[in-house]
Design brief:
There is one protein chain. The protein contains ten helices and eight strands. The protein is of the alpha/beta class. It has a single domain, classed as Alpha-Beta Barrel (TIM Barrel). Strands 1-2-3-4-5-6-7-8 form an eight-stranded parallel barrel, surrounded by five helices. Helix 2 links the parallel strand 2 and strand 3. Helix 1 runs parallel beside helix 10, helix 5 crosses helix 7 and helix 7 packs parallel to helix 8. The protein is globular. The structure holds phosphoenolpyruvate (PEP). Phosphoenolpyruvate binds next to strand 8.
């Protein structure tokens, strides 16, 4: 295995409370342990907005960053009841933000809105975790590549700073189901997505592309065979510090 930087990004969804600040010590310990063995890694916890200020103030570990899970598509301030802009999220301490998650798409996000969100989050100097992926119906209709291509082309553009963008391929049929892709199909998708991003952003360097969908401590080792994977977006299993730590351990061992 090469000495590449691997992201382990937790998506807590609408779960969590301040008592869980304790869990970050365990994550920091495992991150440091592998860094000492020259396994470069980065842990990000994307938590509910209500916890961001508390977690960012009480997180003393550089190995761990705090992120949000969505924002409003308009920048700054405005009459949008119940919403928060990217800059407001940044001000309370977030460094990363998930955008385009399939659960947010179900709630009204579309490629056009996500494009605005990406721009406003980049303007707020947040690092984007931009989720793409096909539904089961689309997969069965053999539309995986065309769906992904459309999502990428309609939400990204050449003006986006590639160093502030992480793409997360998350097949919708895999999220929370226990089903993961066939590894040789996944490799093909990763090669395709990387090529598409390079074309859209007009970059030569390989973009950061991570996988999300039912990753756990039992199946993580399978993914290490795909060299194009730069990390993982982990939902359910990231809420348990033990499971999250075991994912990292089992990835490397
Ligand atoms: C997610 O919601 O981003 C996700 C990957 O969830 P899970 O790991 O639970 O499938």
């Amino acid at each position: 295995m090469t000495n590449k930087l691997v992201y382990f990004i937790g998506n807590w969804k609408m779960f969590g409370d301040i008592s869980q600040i304790k869990s970050i010590k365990l994550l920091h310990q495992v991150s440091s342990k592998f860094k000492k063995k020259r396994k470069r890694n980065k842990i990000v916890l994307c938590i509910p907005n209500s916890l961001i200020n508390f977690f960012s103030k009480n997180n003393k570990y550089k190995s761990i960053s705090i992120g949000a899970q969505n924002c409003h598509h308009k920048e700054g301030y405005g009459a949008f009841t119940g919403s928060e802009s990217a800059s407001m999220i940044k001000k309370v301490g977030a460094e990363y933000i998930i955008l385009g998650h399939s659960e947010s798409r179900l709630d009204g996000d579309n490629n056009k809105k996500i494009k605005m969100k990406i721009q406003s989050a980049l303007n707020a100097n947040l690092t984007i975790i931009f989720c793409i992926g096909e539904t089961l119906k689309e997969k069965r209709a053999k539309k995986t590549f065309s769906v992904i291509k459309k999502q990428l082309r309609e939400s990204l553009n050449i003006k986006n700073n590639p160093r502030k963008i992480i793409i997360a391929y998350e097949p919708v049929w895999s999220i929370g189901t226990g089903n993961i892709p066939n590894m040789s199909e996944l490799k093909k998708i990763f090669i395709f997505v990387k090529r598409e991003i390079k074309k859209i952003l007009k970059i030569k360097k390989s973009p950061i592309l991570i996988y999300g969908g039912s990753v756990n401590d039992k199946n993580i080792a399978k993914f290490s065979s795909i060299s194009e994977i730069n990390g993982f977006l982990i939902g359910g299993a990231s809420r348990s510090p033990k499971k999250f730590v075991d994912i990292i351990k089992n990835y490397y061992t």
